[in-house]
Amino acid sequence: MKQMLQESKFHLIPLGEIAGYKVRPGLYEINGATAIPGGVNFTIHSNLATSCELLLFCTREYEPYAVLPFPENYRIGNVFSMIVFGLQIEEFEYAYRVDGPYCPKKGIIFDKSKILLDPYAKAVTGQRVWGQKAKPGQESYHARVVRDDFDWQDSRQPLTPMEDTVIYEMHVRGFTKDASSGVKYPGTFAGILEKLPYLLELGVTAVELMPLFEFDELKDMREYQGNQLLNYWGYNTISFFAPNTSYAARIEHNQEGNELKELIKVLHEHGLEVYLDVVFNHTAEGNEDGPVISFKGLDNQIYYLLTPDGYYYNFSGCGNTLNCNHPIVQQMILECLRYWVVSYRVDGFRFDLASILGRNEDGSPMSKPPLLQSLAFDPVLGNVKLIAEAWDAGGLYQVGNFPSWNRWIEWNGKYRDDLRSFLKGDLGKANVAVTRIFGSADLYAERVGCNASVNFITCHDGFTLYDLYAYNQKHNEANGWDNSDGANDNLSWNCGAEGETDDEGVNRLRIRMMKNAAAVLLLSRGVPMFLAGDEFGNTQFGNNNPYCQDNIISWLDWNLLEKNKDIFEFFKYMIAFRKQHDPIRKNTPVCSYAFPVQSVHDVIPWESNLHEDSHYIGIMYAGRTKNADDLVYMAVNTYWEPLSIQLPKLSLDHCWYQVVDTYEEDSVMKTPVKAGYGVKIRERSVMIFRMGSIYE
What we know:
Layout: H1 2-8, E1 16-18, E2 21-25, E3 32-36, E4 39-45, E5 51-57, E6 66-69, E7 75-76, E8 79-85, E9 93-99, E10 102-103, E11 108-109, E12 167-170, H2 172-176, H3 189-194, H4 196-202, E13 206-209, E14 213-215, E15 222-224, E16 227-229, E17 237-243, H5 258-269, E18 273-278, H6 295-303, H7 327-344, E19 348-351, H8 370-377, E20 385-388, E21 408-411, H9 413-423, H10 430-437, E22 453-456, H11 465-468, H12 504-522, E23 527-531, H13 559-563, H14 565-580, H15 582-585, E24 598-601, E25 616-625, E26 628-637, E27 643-646, E28 654-661, E29 668-673, E30 678-681, E31 685-693
Parallel strand pairs: 12-13, 12-23, 13-18, 18-19, 19-20, 20-21, 21-22, 22-23
Antiparallel strand pairs: 1-2, 2-8, 3-4, 4-8, 5-6, 5-9, 7-8, 10-11, 14-17, 15-16, 24-25, 25-26, 26-31, 27-30, 28-29, 28-31
Helix pairs in contact: 7-8, 9-10, 12-14
């Protein structure tokens, strides 16, 4: 496109004048506003609009200084396009007004008085300061033209294989906002970059950033018990092409996104991938009572799923549902994702409530949703990870059945639930826990589990890992809904005391339970993911739905890193251990012992008589890497008493080395164990062994 625009400067001459500006028909195939030699190209489309006006504003002004109606002959099909000469992108903001029919029962609600944000805007104005409320009369959103001149130099994407990936989910603001983070630019992209040495030491391979498309943190803002509650998480998109400017440490007028690009570039240089949590299931425009920001005013009946009488379907739980499989919406989503991959070099996307992306215009699920198929086969997205949260708020649960074309992978909610239940000692969970640890073949029979399942025990939605073992019940009172919001069944266990306690026995048990969870997660087939802060015992004080908490409830308390240094060191060790042993992550050539690549054991080797009362499982991975045998055995005891177990026998010149015992305060070790001899595993603990030479 850049070459085309450079060449066009010799041919694009004004052909008319509107409101004192030289103009000509624009570049119809380039959506949005694009700087070109000598001016700016503006392109927008609407199926039912009868007219469209371009509004130009001075910076921070809310009355347009110029109104440029698109002439009828500047419209081709349903596309309005105009080049305006003589504009300097630093000197204006822009928006649109669109007119058309009005028939609410058919979902058609054109209103020429509404100022509309360009749906393809690359930057949104008025959002720069987090939590700053617009003054009366300044509630409309304007866009800014962005100069895409970031120098990527020789930076390349890591292209980490799926089976080698370890995902670290974080909230951009919450990761460093608290003063304990010690960064110069708290709560920003730059703040994350300041924590790069920490991320490298931890050893994760990818960071998954919670929503960073421009959103309205003030939507549904309210006061409760003296605290200001905001839409902190960001699942409330205003503009799909624009980064949240309040996440930048510096003002970036007309170069919005450069700080984010710098973050991604540097992370790539150190081998870290970047995934974005994207929200294409709904927008901030809400239902019938919500504001008109962009899509409602352009083609409400196209962009949203509507009932036969013109009301909004609400499969998102947020007031409206994007009509993802309409060709116009498909085109927008595809262009959006391509833009983030090409302009920002993003490595992957996690799709919030992704089952909505597979619903038809009447709300019914489709067997082969065209949007999902288009994304799976799009060449620009060919190396991008596509991760689905395979359910929605309308009851469509597709874990194991999400349309994939061997490209989509899923957040495995059944892994979370089954492992939570097994690890806290519930009956009847041993067999299903083994299935989950080995890659959930019952769910992904048609796909390789290590490339289909994102395994997690915690994420942003629910308890932190510490809270999972500190609270039996949710404690969401601070949210102001009488503790009625958030999940009620968390499969948690407080280890004997609700919340903070001085009981040393309870606190030691909690640390052990956290280490157990980390060990099992990182020794499971599939892609492990955990929530930022879990690696040092961060707490949300029992709040399992802190979507509105822009405070220490949601911010990471980095003081806990020093307090719980042993938990951090354990996570670090387990991530490194996973990387060192290929058979954990994928099938390798058979080892010289001819052991199966993965096997399950009871307390006696090669017996797997798991039953309703089983609280022990032995997991062994075996293979051959770098011309050497590589065997790993994990013993998991969720029983409340010690057990005596035996390990599989090895040859005389090999033995098992015990490398982990979560019961011990110093959980990492290297202790030889004679093969075939009994080992005592203490209550509620995990032990890990690897094969090695007796001469080590």
